[in-house]
Amino acid sequence: MTQSVISTKPLESPWQGLDPFLFAVHHVDNYPAGDGRLGIKPEDRAKEGQGWRMYHGERVPGFPAHPHRGFETVSIVLKGYVDHADSLGVGARYGQGDVQWLTTGGGIEHGEMFPLVNTDKPNTMEMFQIWLNLPPEGKSANPAFEMFWAEEIPVIEKDGTKVTAIAGAFGDVRPLAPPTDSWASKPENELAIWLIDIDKSGSITLPTASMEALRRAYIYEGQANFDGNVLPANHLANLDASRATTIRNDGDQRVRILLLQSKPIEAPVVARGPFVLNTNEEMIETVMKYQSEGYGRWPWPTRAHTHDPDERRFIRYPDGRRVTPPAG
Length: 328
Known about the structure:
single chain, mainly beta, Jelly Rolls, 2 domains, seven-stranded antiparallel beta sheet, six-stranded antiparallel beta sheet, 25 strands, 41% strand, globular
């Protein structure tokens, strides 16, 4: 094993995280054509499990309203769409390369439904959701919602390789600004989220970071060569971030990698379902408060709210302001 590769391991589900990343999930669902109301046709319901899942949805796949506190969700939607609705009154439809970064802070409820917008062809969904811990001082921060439209996310293309820099500078290429209370908001924490696609015979050399930064590569497609150490799909590699690791594709299939990097927060983690705190006392207080008060009035007609079938990508804020992706 070369010096740039510290250790390797088969992937488990969910993908194991390194502080401050709690875990990552990769959803790939080959949904059929929709019923015209963003849901599954009755005749297709019996096919659940054959390449797609309903998750917790009854008619529309997805995750109806549920609470979170104490961490962030970074949702990267490569294919398909997500309909977002939350207890702050924010609604959105995003996808096709967009990234939603949600700071849950002191507490929020949100729903994430997967609308089947196509009625005449399949609705393929591919997305990552990364759970990113907040430092102790961020556990009570005001919830915040940020959208990175696909058209604005920096992309580096060179030598048969494409790097999508969602967080963390890649050489001279700077990413979009993360939410204010995120561990990623301070450059000295060296947090990075990069999607790396390497075509046949392509290669990429990763920029270096400090010795304190933890770096993990998740290979989810193809066979990747890390400075001579070859790993197949469904494996992870812990890398020495202080070394300029070169990744090559020596096979016939495209290599796809999610790379996560950061200096650790190094704070205690007490996790219970949708809540991530630092002490048992905080957890007990959080659960009791949520059970008695919730996170405000749910402002949407249903817990599994979806937006109008004809809507395209957008964000609508409680004050009525509407934001759409940049033209072109």
